[in-house]
Write a structure and sequence with these properties.
mainly alpha; globular; 2 domains; AhpD-like
Length: 196
Amino acid sequence: MTGTTRIPAAQITGFKGALIKRFAKKSVGQVPTSLGVYWHNQKVLMAMAGVGGKVGKWDACDEQLKSFAHMAVAAQVGCSWCLDFGYFEASNKNLDLNKAREIPRWRESGAFSPLEREVLAYAEAMTVTQPTVTDEMVASLRAQLGDSALVELTAIIAFANFTTRPNVALGIESDGFAVACGLKPLAMPTAVVSST
């Protein structure tokens, strides 16, 4: 759950603030901590939200593949907020929740199809520094998804990096969306579970 952010959340005030809070409560049932942190620079907040809104309208690639890719980036980067929100969104979009909850340990899980495993590996390969995407990865996904869907999937993964990394840097952690709607806890990688 949410700890202390590295920049304290600002009071969201004014007419624009009231609209944003109302929209957040209608969309996700609460005002996320991240809104208060990003409220310190409303131009950044609005630009990020605007890009997110446009990304949400893309439809060339399967919604489940995009969701899983975004969650794989969040798991790899360590953005508990994005991982929790992604799981919550998977529920709202009627995606496969058994698979969604397994994203943090996808390599050990038998829940995923070969294509889903390729997408998750691709998301991780794009996320590491230096990226480790190979010609073979792209060729295989291109053959299975087509050019338009692969371009969209690649942009989704880039967008996931754009949103997860600032949250981690600013100390924005899970707001408990998944718990609030009664979802089972996300799986943890075996290495993490055995070390505790």
